[in-house]
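Work Package 3 (structural annotation) set out to generate three-dimensional models for the target panel prioritized at the project kickoff. During this period the team completed the workflow that converts sequence records into discrete structure tokens, so that structures can be stored uniformly alongside our sequence database. As a representative example, we reproduce one entry of 342 residues exactly as it appears in the project archive.
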Amino acid sequence: MPPDPNDPASAGAPESEEALIAEFWAPLAADLGGAYDLQDDCATIAPPPGTELVVTADALIAGVHFLPDEEPASIAWKALAVNVSDLVAKGATPLAYLMTLALPGKPARDWLASYAAGLAAAQQAFGCRLAGGDTDRTPGPLSVSITALGTVPIGGMVRRAGARPGDHVYVSGTIGDATLGLAVRLNEQAVLAQLAPEAQRYLAGKFSRPQPPVALGAALRACASAAIDISDGLLKDFDRLCRVSGVSGSLDASRVPLSEAARTAIDSGIRTAADLMTGGEDYEVLATVPPGRAAEFEQRAAACDTRVTRIGEVGDGQAGASVLSVSGEPMRVEKMGWDHFS
């Protein structure tokens, strides 16, 4: 649970914001020289020669992006992961991040320790370090806002707006696991009844601790004409890419990669393929690749031990995205993905 000002555990909390920073946040910045051990108001960041910075920001709010009873380490991991996912889709190498943490009460020491441990693990996995930020109190729910910085060779960022007719469409990893993981975390009985405990643990982990394919960045820079991370649903994010590129695109539902647990969910009737392609929170990468670079892209992905699957094609026109069902018929989808305001 988030910190509660009435929780006796808060009695062991740091005495001040400065003490909190020194004990929990400064160690996360220790390997970033320009962070100055978080003892200044600002940091200095010099990208490696021949590169430029790629910057993104995303926020997580209790009850919207994670469950209110989520363990602190997983909140921290997910907050960094969703930002790194954006960087990866641009072909960027994660470098550093800024974090604003707004707490609804005086933070308990054990909560802070778990949260800091989750950040430390995420930093190690994604290859970036804390550069600074802010820690606040809020009358609202717990929220975490992160601004992440990555690097690419100058002019090398992979944009959404580069897809061209004839390009192949690829996706990394598997689709729909986080959607099912949320159902597991919410104790949806129809889902729990069909999935073995091991599958439930796997799916819950995909929801709470997403794993963006960091190693795929170089392959995207070398081969992709356009790319986007899948945060709001495979169909919605593909449609976004198609529209900003001024093209149409078609996906084949029979090719969309699914985990064994997701296939079980479809086969048992507790979810449809459309549910999994529109649920969001996958934090995988969707990329368009010219036919002449497809073999190289697959080879590069295999070399960095990252699964990629060809699932569609880019077409003429500006009609956005469509999808064919497993039977080959056009699939009707009521809602293409997640939207905060609909």
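The beta strands are 51-61, 93-103, 129-137, 143-153, 168-172, 226-230, 248-252, 284-289, 308-315, 320-324.
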